[in-house]
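haha ok so turns out i had the wrong file open the whole time. this is the CORRECT one, sorry everyone. sequence first:
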Amino acid sequence: MEAELQAVLRSSAFERSEKLRRFLQYICDLTMRGESGRINEYLIGAEVFLRGPNYSPSEDSVVRRQAHTLRQKLQEYYAGEGLLNPVRIELPVGRYIPVFRRVKADSPALSVVTELPDVAPAVSAAKAVPVAPGVTEKTEWFRAGWIVAAAVLCALGTGYMAGARNATPEVGGATREFWGPWVDSGRPAVICYSSPLTTVVKHFDKELPPDSLPKRIPVREAEAGVMRSAFGLREGGVLYFMPAINQTKVGEAIAGVQLSSVLSRLHVPVRATQSRLVNWENLRGDDMILLGHNEANQWLDPLLANAPFRLSPTSSDAQRGIVNSAPREGEQASYQIRYAAANHEGDQEYALISMLPGVGEKQRLLLINGLNAQATQAAAEYLTSEDKLAELLGRLRKAQPAHTGTWRFQAVLKTEVHDKIPTKSWVVAVRPL
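then structure:
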């Protein structure tokens, strides 16, 4: 294994990349010493890329980016200079522990791990067993396999959890295509929740002192009676309004969890913020996903100013909605919530999905804007489902067959909601940009 490692490090594929050589040397040295259980993203970032003890893998994706490049370089090497090498070094996707494999002489396919290293892994006092003259290659492979298997089992015994943390669940092709630009950017995705000025109704057993903090506004008795009846609030005590600007509705919170889950599977770090804390510098430099509607997220209107679909706020004669500036055949001029007349029927709600060119030159920008929080949740579920993404990409290809590269588009999603829970969703309008 040491001889193969040195051959790779001296190759033309690696000669101009000191960082990749250090990376490969480091993880191979630990593996050959029987210390693969120590290998993890934090250790590599701190030791190989000199990020220091304060390195945070969730905020700095350098290890994941370099691991992706290292896999490509190894493939390039074994497709050229190393094509006939009897041993190959691989870095499995989602892990940072290298694997050494012997190539069968009569087949380009790779066999199981059977190569006996020049310097055996340090498992207790075990040493490489020399191959006596006349021993067949098959016998050598069998004996070497047991030695390396022992080393691997020992490493697994101490490093199972590290390996489990680096494992990547299977991700489908549509998911990779849709979210690929976010992976390639090498930056964290920032999920921006809306910061609406909301009023929470709180129940207290007795009246509060007038100077109590935080400030609360008592609900008048006539209004309190209506609220108790409409929302099933218990009798007795006192109701207070409590204004707040940092409330995130449950639908948006669930949407954030869903988006974080799929991005984490793709090794994209995720951060969160509130719209009231965002400025134009953030929008120019960060890859951002903005949630909510334009009454609660002040950035949506300027970002959608030139888009074919825009958001309209609530007015005295209309509910908030989605405006279609140039309706095409089969499309509506506007989309608004339709509340069910009977309990057994579902409300019809809408969300606008906009994958737009970023404010910055290379920045990614995705807007997921439900007219209600549950529609935002439904749209996030749609964008994290392999089947739904395949359906959406099919609609986009049909609308723009010659398209290549990153998709920029808008789509209006209709969802059926029962008891404030989204059930089924489907696209009613799509527009490649």
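The chain has a mean pLDDT of 81.
again sry for the mixup
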